[in-house]
Design a protein that fits this description.
Elements (H helix, E strand, L loop, with lengths): L4 H4 L6 H12 L4 H7 L15 H12 L5
Length: about 70
């Protein structure tokens, strides 16, 4: 039984191939679609992430304090 050579081939695209394919797909995107896929929420402005400084300082102080055994 002959095996078709095409069946055993595995397609492994290079990073360049992947980048080109992504660019071709994204060419058809509207600006709204780009923002949506980038995680922007319509009608809102980007804000930096909130950092709970109180809990962060508490964690840091616990790390720096010597622990009694």
């Amino acid at each position: 039984m002959k095996r078709d050579k095409r069946e055993s081939r595995v397609f492994l695209p290079s990073s360049h191939d992947i980048r080109q394919a992504c660019e071709r797909i994204q060419e058809s995107w509207s600006e709204r679609e780009r923002r949506k896929r980038a995680g922007w929420v319509e009608g809102r402005h980007w804000l930096p992430p909130l950092v709970e400084t109180d809990s962060l300082l508490c964690d840091l102080s616990r790390l720096s304090d010597p622990q009694p055994y």
